[in-house]
Amino acid sequence: MSRKYKQLSLSQRHLIEFLLKQGKTNRAIAKEIGVSPSTISREIKRNGSPIYGKYTAEQAQKRRDKKRENSNKKTIIENNPKIEKYIREKLKSGYSPEMIEKRGRMEKEAGLLKELPFIPCKETIYGYIYRSYKEKNDMEIIGCLKTRRKRRHKRILKKKQRGVIRDRVFIDQRPREVNERMRIGDWEIDTIEGKGHKGIIVSMVERMSRTLLLRYVPSKSANAVCQTIIDALAPFRQIGLVQSITFDNGKEFAFHHTIAKKWNIPTFFTHPYSAWEKGTIERFNKDVRFYIPKKTPLTDNLVQQLPLIQETINTLPRKVLGYLSPYEYLFYVLSNQNYSLNLNHSLKNNLLHFQLESAIL
Predict the structure, then answer these.
(1) CB of 18 within 8 A of CB of 12?
(2) What tens-digit pLDDT sequence spans the chain (361 residues)?
(3) I want to staple 213 with a disulfide (CB 3.0 to 4.6 A). Which of 118, 204, 294, 348 is the partner?
(4) Minimal CA–CA distance to 186: which of 214, 212, 208, 169?
(5) Which residues, in sequence order, are CB contacts of 100 under 8 Å at separation 6+?
(6) Quick one: 62 and 196 in the same domain?
(7) CATH number at residue 221
């Protein structure tokens, strides 16, 4: 059964003022009026004078009335159906509130989105999302957030014992051009496990352009993972866009030296239990987990959807790329550096298809 709350009346506020002047405690005043001590404490804190630290009934009533005038008003999003529709469509497309704000404003400055009077900031959008959930129990809009959480959770470090991989070179020795993303061709690689450790997804991200590749591997054996990485990156290697790879300490990457020898490139490893050292791939794994939550079995149907998930993530605007998408950024950089785009046909079509409108470029 829900509680029923009542506002204090002006006469009760006069009594609070009178009893305070007599030196009564909050608990004594609460007993006299018939409310809880916390009610008296909140009333004095909220409606007392912030300058003089005194409580007067008339001023407290005025402050209360002023606050009531501004309560329960619709925000700028609810007051603009076109903006509300635009925000909901983008959220369903995988955009975050910050992506909606920055990309929307960039397109508006370029002369697009003329039907929208303005683009709200990300905090306004977050407020709209949580207000819709709290007041209307709108589970659909909460489901559009990457975490699907209704409140924040503390992060807990979980350590696992792992075997030692031979011939590792730690990330400390990675050259400056890799660390500072000064070139295209440096990759971070990780794995995403399915339910019951049955099957994995190998996720690969190019550090500069943030281009993501996803490949399914039915076994977590080092040999299978190694061959999958070689097959996935081969088109990029053909045009010189695989110059280094950074792994974590998973035993599935034990054959890293095979890749290094085949392509004559260096491979690097993060320190044990230091996932933040490869933050780019961890960030993109979080995006993948939006579509494939933990404990989800990697069924044939889900595996067939991996190319669509990969394409969806690669077409989202990224703050770090100036709100270009990874496909747009990759195509733009390669075009300006006169690379020969001898990629496989489907990838080249994607890059061409997802160019940013010429008005923005």
Answers:
(1) no
(2) 445 567 888 889 999 989 988 888 999 999 988 899 999 988 888 888 776 678 888 888 888 887 777 666 667 888 889 999 999 999 999 899 999 999 999 999 988 999 999 999 988 898 888 888 877 788 888 888 877 766 544 444 444 444 578 889 999 999 999 999 999 999 999 999 988 888 999 999 999 999 999 999 998 899 999 999 999 999 999 988 999 999 998 899 999 999 999 999 999 999 988 888 999 999 999 999 999 998 899 999 999 999 999 999 999 999 999 899 999 998 888 777 655 444 444 444 544 444 433 333 3
(3) 204
(4) 208
(5) 87, 90, 91, 119, 122, 125
(6) no
(7) 3.30.420.10
- CA–CA distance, 104 with 110 (Å, rounded to integer): 10
Q: What is the pTM of this model?
A: 0.61
82: in domain: no
Q: Which residues on adjacent β-strands are paired with residue 202?
A: 191, 215
Tell me how far apart the alpha carbons of residues 335 and 184 are, in angstroms, rounded to a whole number: 13
Helices 97-109, 81-92: crossing angle, 10 deg rounding? 120
Tokens (6 digits) for 12: 């009760």
In a domain, 84, yes or no: no
In a domain, 274, yes or no: yes
Structural domain boundaries enclosing 98: 94-142
